[in-house]
Amino acid sequence: MQLYYGPTSHFSLMQHIYQDLVSNPTSRPEPSGGVEEAGAGLDLFSFRRIFFGTPDFHEINKSPGKGDLSMMFMPYDLAKTFLSRFLSSLYHLIPLRPKIYYEQCLDRLYNSSPADHLDGPTQAILLLAMASAALGTDHFAWGDVLFERVKASLTAFDDVTDMLRFYANYQNEQGRPNSVFLHLGSASRKALSAGLHKDVPHDVDQTPENIEERRVTFWSLYIYETWFCFHVGRPSSLNLKDVAIEYPQDQFIRLLAQLCKTITRSVNEIYGQRHESLLHMWRVARSIANDIRGHEAHLQQALGLGLDDSIQAGSLGVRQIIFIALYHHTLLLTFRPFLIFRGHWQRERNIALNQSSTNVTNRPRETPTWLNEACNHAITAAQKTLHHLCEASRVNNLVLELRYHGYFFGNSVFTLIYEFIHNPSVAPVYLPWVYASLQTLSTMRAGDPIASTIAAMQTVLRNINPSYEWAPLLATTEDNVAPPGGTAIQQGLTPNHRHRVLLSNSAILQNPSLGMRPDTLTSPWNLPQLEKLENPETGGSVGSGDDLLDFTQSDMGWDFDFSTMDLDAFFSIYQTNDAPNT
């Protein structure tokens, strides 16, 4: 089986990290850009099931329920709780109908009569909404039950665009990115074939409610399709040049749609072109960063909040973290190629220093200020993503229950890990961010995609340096020691003596350069200080003239695509000698 994940995917970055860990840096060949057998790396990181979207073992042996979707088997109060949680969280990504519509549908589902019976697609959408909301709770097993009932009848409704999106939303919460991509793509093509990307002509009789619903339907699909394709590094099925429909009145959908237009610009101008000059690529990235920061005013208009305002509770807090995570994620991926370049360059310089003086090259040895600035953009975006996700998870259970946040944790943490693999001296600065992320992830409901994300992070830390591995914080009660709430055990993390090593490590506790408070390792919610984390300026802080040191492919002597940093590859789980080079 072969799958493609592009350069913006954290799967590709993880494979790069795997190669850095297992390869001899003095003999490692440059990437060929062809098909790459990823089985060993996926197994090392325990990420094979997430990568290929295969089900858990218990799901393989589970027989799906069949029959009429209207046959009720779940207590009404529990169904109402699931729907309420959906309407307070995931609903904001797919607000196709007013909230009261779904509440009325639930009442009709439980109190239906032959004269007032919900149609099949509406029932399926309602059950999928409840299933998605159930996954982050202690009642997550209901999510599987509801999903299987819908799946058994899906073939009858697979032409319904809205249901495909709810199906994709469920798979996203389950950590099945390939399935999400396929269903969003199918929904996008069905929307295009129905003309949803065009406003209805003025001579067509439509109520204002129908026009608004049509606009919300298209733009919410555009948002989901755009950011998810950005996440997996694959082309989107929706192209803005084909779109001729006004924004809806929903201010939050307008906000996300405007941000996704900038995401599209990053995809096209950073990753969609082959850059011969890294300096030119940096100037493009700075321009995109300015566009991204322009959305802060839109955030104030839509939610009445500033980018760095305190974390909010409830439904408002969910919308706040959705925007903040996408905002910083876009900045991170716009500037991450520069971080990858610097890592390659540092490895090359280290190799050159270990070789004889007769192999001296004319390549620059000092890192230009503009390159460090670009890398700081990526690092700061990763840290701010982690800070907001950890804080929001602490104060808002609705945020803590959203399992797709594992994607954002993974991207940000592996970005920091990549940096200290190539520059070990900064590991003490970034490890507190990694530990805070692991602590937050361990408090989420056990199972994938969270368990695989934790396992991958732990494996990388252990392979870099055994002392880096994170151990769950333990709470002592009388003579017994146990993880808080048992969550660490549920995630497959076995407490051992290493927590004592970490807590007694004088290098960690006494070194003021670590950027963390003395009690960072003894409290589950303490985070490194964020006050000094300011986004680097994108103006003329390091000049913009022609005198700046540039890097070109001919100068470096690399067969290396600056835009993708050779993270653009196919992955196969089978060894093959005739893999296509595409």
Automatic annotation (TrEMBL):
<dbReference type="GO" id="GO:0000981">
    <property type="term" value="F:DNA-binding transcription factor activity, RNA polymerase II-specific"/>
</dbReference>
<protein>
    <submittedName>
        <fullName>Transcription factor, fungi</fullName>
    </submittedName>
</protein>
<dbReference type="GO" id="GO:0008270">
    <property type="term" value="F:zinc ion binding"/>
</dbReference>
<dbReference type="GO" id="GO:0006351">
    <property type="term" value="P:DNA-templated transcription"/>
</dbReference>
<dbReference type="GO" id="GO:0005634">
    <property type="term" value="C:nucleus"/>
</dbReference>
<dbReference type="Pfam" id="PF04082">
    <property type="entry name" value="Fungal_trans"/>
</dbReference>
<dbReference type="InterPro" id="IPR007219">
    <property type="entry name" value="XnlR_reg_dom"/>
</dbReference>
<keyword id="KW-0805">Transcription regulation</keyword>
<dbReference type="InterPro" id="IPR051127">
    <property type="entry name" value="Fungal_SecMet_Regulators"/>
</dbReference>
<feature type="domain" description="Xylanolytic transcriptional activator regulatory">
    <location>
        <begin position="180"/>
        <end position="254"/>
    </location>
</feature>
<keyword id="KW-0539">Nucleus</keyword>
<keyword id="KW-0804">Transcription</keyword>
<dbReference type="GO" id="GO:0000435">
    <property type="term" value="P:positive regulation of transcription from RNA polymerase II promoter by galactose"/>
</dbReference>
<dbReference type="GO" id="GO:0000978">
    <property type="term" value="F:RNA polymerase II cis-regulatory region sequence-specific DNA binding"/>
</dbReference>
